[in-house]
Amino acid sequence: MRIRGVVLMMLAFVGISAAQAPAPSKAKAKAPSAPASRNPATLAQLMKGILFPSANVVFFAQSDNPNDVPPAKDPALAINPLASSYGKWEAVENASLAIVEAANLLTVPGRKCSNGLPVPVTNADWPKLVQGLRDAGMAAYKAAQSKNQDKILDAADVMTTACANCHDKYREKPTPADRCK
Length: 181
Ligand code: HEC
Prior knowledge:
Number of strands: 0
CATH class: Mainly Alpha
Bound molecules: heme C
Strand content: under 5%
Radius of gyration: 22 Å
Structural class: mainly alpha
Number of domains: 1
């Protein structure tokens, strides 16, 4: 019985490595994968997955001192970044940088908005609106590094404006179909 178990395990192992083996040369000759498959998130999904939660960590520091956030019972499993192993002001620094880096993802061609239209990366004002977000993230990062809540207040203001500038133009529409035009 025991030997049979070992043999089965070995077979399973062989099966797995065969599945993970590099595809034959035919795959190599294929054209590089379409941008869409490398950027599966819609613009709205990026906003909800990265910008919204990160901005909230920055906004929190306006009214509450991140140093006063007690660690979660198990900081390694915390769902609140401020109470996690990388919490307090470090969480504000990292959330700010996540926003700066995510700004680059807003300029990638091939991404769609939730209504199926392409993200308007070639519109003249789009890069400027994205740069506004980048600047806001950097301001928040510097404020977080200084652990100064007055500076966070200023940076949060810049950030709210950066989000709103773009939303006013591309999101706040009577119908979803008119977004991203
Ligand atoms: C350069 C433009 C731009 C910037 C900057 C921007 N957004 Fe957005 N955002 C959009 C657009 C356009 C949509 C709608 C996207 C879609 O429908 O796919 C959107 C959607 C969202 C959504 C999803 C809700 C909804 O109505 O679909 C959230 C949440 C959001 N943004 C938060 C933020 C926050 C927070 C910031 C700033 C930290 C920000 N956004 C900065 C353009 C922007």
